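Lecture 7 notes: from sequence to structure.
We start with the chain below.
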Amino acid sequence: MTTKQRKTGFSPDIAIPPGETLQEFVDSLAMTQVDLAKRTGLTTKTINEIIKGKASITQETALKLESVFGTPASFWNNLEANYQETRARLQAEKDIENETVIARLIPYSELARRGFVKPTSKVKEKVVNLRQFFGVASLNYISDILPVAFRKHDKASASHYALASWIRMGELLAGDIKTQDFSEKKLKEMIPKFKELTMLEANDFLPRLSELCASCGVVLVIVPHLPKTFAHGATKWLHPLKAMIQLSTRYQYADIFWFSFFHELGHILLHSKKEAFAETGDKTKEESEADGFASDCLIPRTKYKSFISKNRFTRDSIIKFADEVGIDHGIVVGRLHHDQKIPWGGFQEMQRKFS
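Predicted structure tokens for the same chain:
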């Protein structure tokens, strides 16, 4: 691109290889490609490939052409540079056009509302901004960096790209939070303290919960629910010494929040650091194991079996049992609902809801 073109904002819509100009010089002197090869010391094949745009004009070749035609080497170098720049720009524009299909599947307006991308109505600008948001050179690579979001989902209306966006928001938020190096031993020792926090209101327990997690090498982020994600939580290792637990605000009941927290904790303690997990309702082996871990942490299995064996569920008996195992009363109610020991909605007034 010439200086004049830069000043006027002119952008060619076709990339013309410098070989075409070289052919014009050859023709003007009634020279053949064989003649030019002999005069430059290059092979006839190389000359032919330059003219056809299959080979580039190197700086060494530009100096040889300067000697043959009397034109400065910079002339040939500029032709080559402008050609490569234009070709790259046209390919980039084509890539952006292809990626607009993916951009339309991503909840851009919601990401913009939350300050993760710049507001715009232009789809090509959305592609560029979303590349920066996900940290990829192409939106086609999202499934490669966040494969957990593209696993089979049991909800037909679920959006893989919405889930990927939600998890990415968590990554970006978690990256700014400092933690101690991960310690499995310390995290296991912290479980009783986590259980104590279940009896507090969100404003009281969240700062403390985040602090305790960080002291074990785990960053806790609460990311508001995104439509079509159907996710309660997610777990991802940001690096070998820092894990992330990400929880959603999809459901605001305390018992669901705490089950999701311990579920994600189970993934950290039971499963590979190379795997990321998203709690979307699919019952894989790992998800079932995390469910079991959460259930047993919150309510010890033997004590729960003893409690339900009496088959006597009253407000007083639930409160007494919850106090015995040291958890929020609503968690016991939620467990009894899940196991169909009491009707859905039974003792619902005991289930706390976060604002």
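Points to note: The longest strand covers residues 233-239. Residues 300-355 form one domain.
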